[in-house]
Amino acid sequence: MPLEALHIQSVRCIKTLDLKADQRWNWLIGANGAGKSSVLEAIHILGTGQTWRRNPRHVQREDDNEYLVSAHLPDHFLALRRRGETREIRYDGESLASAWMLLDILPLQSLHDDNSHFVAGTAEDRRRVLDWGIYYADHYYGTVFRQYRRALQQRNAWLKSGYGQQPWDDGVIATGEEIQQRRQAHLATVQPEVATLWERWSGSLSGLSLHLHSGWKEGLALGDCLLRDQEQDREMGYTHSGPHRANLAFRVRGKAALDILSRGQLRVLGLAYRLAQVKILKQAGLPLPTILIDDFAAELDASARDWWVKELDLLGVQVFAAVTAAGQIPAAVSRGGHFCLAAGQLEKETAS
Ligand SMILES: Nc1ncnc2c1ncn2[C@@H]1O[C@H](COP(=O)(O)OP(=O)(O)OP(=O)(O)O)[C@@H](O)[C@H]1O
Fold it and tell me: Which of 153, 184, 225, 255 could join 216 in a cystine, given CB atoms 3.0 to 4.6 angstroms apart?
């Protein structure tokens, strides 16, 4: 569901900002500190209820005591207001009970910092990216994921306190094994698409493979692992094995991508993965996300930028991308909205 218009109030350096969005390409242009990431983060907050790993209190503009982000979507209006610890989300005037619902109202694929460099990031970064794709491709995944999280929280609370009767592990085991199966099934679909996209860009660097480590000892059932590690888990006060410890490894010709690719190549590989996630949604006729790209040009040469925007253009998605100068925008996609920012304000808005 593309954004049609956006209103931001008191987010980071932005006092108030209104923009009319293009259905496809929206370029945020400005020097360092101009407020480009602040616009992208405001959209991210509206679509997820969460900030970009910052302390939520620092998102609010200094000297203001609440912030607001709202958007017109086709036939709908979505608004999120936060004052201190209180957050209110309204969809067509009705209060939303849970921020989870935002994920389906305004699907977003956010590419920023660790999310953009997730191939070289932490296992948690890669799990988050992996789960994002499965959430949108597999309708039941979100439910299983939440059930697992709840069961794991109960188990960990018991491990920490040591009081009362141990909760049954059945819930953790059943949902944990199911998460692993769904992740594997999803990767089987994504892998050929990633390989095709990667080879289209890299040419000679073929032989890409993805490997999912379940998060518990290979060859053992999750239940057996939990039983085996029970004493250790009690000593440490948390559960060592399960899909919350899974990892996704990228290999090129049998070697860890991290060891043989350059920073720029690692970013392209990550982007190929993110493009493949959207491609399989498109093939399945599912709603496509709006793509938020912070620091579009970082570590990419002109040919990598051209490759990326061409692939995004083929997908037909709405994009918001930040660049420090208009010259970084590839000619093929220089159409759309150009929003020039300085000191948190929109200085010039042009549309073609
Ligand atoms: N809570 C806040 N209140 C006021 N200003 C803030 C707040 N948080 C951050 N800022 C300021 O907002 C400005 C814009 O930051 P932002 O990250 O949006 O810039 P940017 O245009 O993305 O820059 P870059 O190209 O360097 O990434 C910075 O000068 C920052 O110090």
Answer: 225
32 Cβ below 6 A of ligand 1:
yes
Ligand-binding annotation for 34, yes or no, is yes
User: Hey, which residues does 338 pair with through a beta bridge?
Assistant: 27, 350
Quote the ligand 1 centre to 14 CA distance (angstroms).
9
* Least confident piece of the model among 178-182, 232-236, 337-341, 348-352: 348-352
Distant-in-sequence, close-in-space partners of 62: CB < 8 Å, separation ≥ 6? none
10 is in an annotated binding site: no
* 31 marked as binding residue: yes
Ligand 1 site, residue 62, Cβ cutoff 6 A: yes
- pTM (predicted TM-score): 0.95
Name which residue sits closest to atom 4 of ligand 1, judged by CA: 13
Between CA 36 and CA 333 the distance in angstroms is 19
Ligand 1, atom nearest to 41 Cα: 18
Just give the CATH number of 117-275: 1.20.1050.90
Query: DSSP of 41-81, one letter per residue?
Result: HHHHHHHHS--SSS-GGGTBPTT-S-EEEEEEETTEEEEEE
